[in-house]
Design goal:
single chain; alpha/beta; 7-stranded mixed sheet; 5-stranded mixed sheet; 13 helices; 12 strands; 37% helix; binds pyridoxal-5'-phosphate
Amino acid sequence: MKKDTLLAQIGRDPGRYQGMVNTPVFRTSTVIFPDLASYEARGGGDYKKVRYGLYGTPTTFALEEAVAKMEGGYAAVALPSGLSAITAALCAFLRTGDHLLLTDSVYVPTRTFCDGRLKANGVEIEYYDPLIGAGIERLIRPNTKAVLCEAPGSLTFEMQDIPAIATVARARGIPVLADNTWGTPYYFRSFERGVDVSIHAATKYIAGHSDVMMGLIVTNEQYWQTVRKTVADYGFGVSPDDCYLALRGFRTIGVRMKQQMQSALAIARWLQKRSDVRRVIYPALEDDPGHQIWKRDFEGAASLFSFVTIPVSERAVEAFVNALKLFGIGSSWGGFESLIQVAHIKKYRTATQWDPGGPTIRLHIGLEDPDDLIADLEQAFAVMKKA
Ligand SMILES: Cc1ncc(COP(=O)(O)O)c(C=O)c1O
């Protein structure tokens, strides 16, 4: 079955729910068992059966199954945010005295968690150059217990060679975790590229409508119990209403992402031609340094990318951003609406340097008509020039 057909099928079972086309919202805390024996045998170890509201209802399971199937993983678990999915996944593998390798381009709050909480608990944190590839071998120590990748970096968009990193790590029995929010289960089939544990901020394209906070961890069979038990131990659970919304959003991820990628490419190419833009950083562009890896490993691109302007004052950047009428100024991405953010990166680099010769601006391209977005950017560049 092709993936767009799969999207219409997964995560629902009308025969089980009186013909209802979507899996309904099941709200509960308590689950009543028919007798003591079945209560005492509840759940077993797989967390795939209803036992107590915290561990999921059929609504939760429908979303988790759909996402795991699309990505080609064994199973998935939903958490209250993308960040909680990252922190829970890391805690599943790391103890005092362990060593973690993670990309220098990682999502900044992940960095804050590692440099703060994990370090305080005695975990050694080491950042690697996102372009390291198989060279990661020289950083591996006897106590390395996890590698965390993110491809591309969510502000600077360096493309990582995940298969090369995974080949080295897995040969030593080290699990490979990846923040796959940009790739999504639709465009990056992590498990075929050597990832063991794939993490999503479902808040972005999976839910897709800027109205849900959620994370999902998808694992292969080997690491499912480790991850699922950690999530249960921490007591993370999500509301069935949010799961319903996320699955409703996920069902249209294909059409949304195809449209958004097309618009993002049109805008990125338009930006490339401007004299006030120094560089556009988007792996889907043919001349991007990460393009070959992207083309080899990904089936499409998210509509999130950055560009670097020629050197201009902070006041000019502010005037540019404030002049935009169709781009919201705010965090997040992956929804229906276009967004802009000025990326302050320098202070978050330790293994590499980020000095592209001008301010870095990140755009999320939504479902608006790209011609309108281009016209909006054009008038904002005119304002920037005068500032
Ligand atoms: C790459 C990446 N990972 C994880 C997250 C965290 O997701 P959430 O906001 O749902 O905690 C974000 C949020 O911006 C992100 O950009």
